[in-house]
Amino acid sequence: MKKILVLPAFLLAFASFAHAQSVDFVEPKDGATVPQTFKVKFAVDGMKVAPAGDMNEGTGHHHLLIDTADIGQGEAIPMNESHRHFGKGQTETEITLPPGRHRLTMQFADGAHRSYGEKMRKSIEISVK
Ligand SMILES: [Cu+2]
Question: Whole-prediction pTM value?
């Protein structure tokens, strides 16, 4: 009986491991041209959005990094104009940027704002007109 149960458990574990965790921008798209005030929508796959302070495994919240360096895994994300936190669990926002090219990075991080690193990061470049 035990042997029969081991295989499905193994397959289930493998399936959840193989299921890639990732984040993405629903909008804007990489390379897009946008007005100075525009909407940003986040997506996350393989983890759940939870408010800041929630330390349950597999949860976190979105951060938008604007024209700034990446934050390595385990490092806390600063809170300032170029590092915006969506600690209520928001999955979209509206931002205003000056005209020109900008690099937007979406970084998913845990309830204590510690970066989940490269696997939970996505960067795009946009043009603000
Ligand atoms: Cu945060």
Answer: 0.85
Does residue 100 belong to any structural domain of this protein?
yes
pLDDT values of the chain reduced to their tens digit, one per residue, 129 residues: 555 566 666 656 555 555 689 999 999 999 999 999 999 999 999 999 999 999 999 999 999 999 999 999 999 999 999 999 999 999 999 999 999 999 999 999 999 999 999 999 999 999 999
DSSP 6: H
- Asked if the structure places residue 79 within a domain, the reply is yes
Q: How far, in Å, is the centroid of ligand 1 from the Cα of 11? A: 34
Tell me how far apart the alpha carbons of residues 101 and 28 are, in angstroms, rounded to a whole number.
13
Look at residue 10 and tell me if it is in a domain: no
Nearby residues for ligand 1 (ion, Cβ within 5 Å):
85, 113
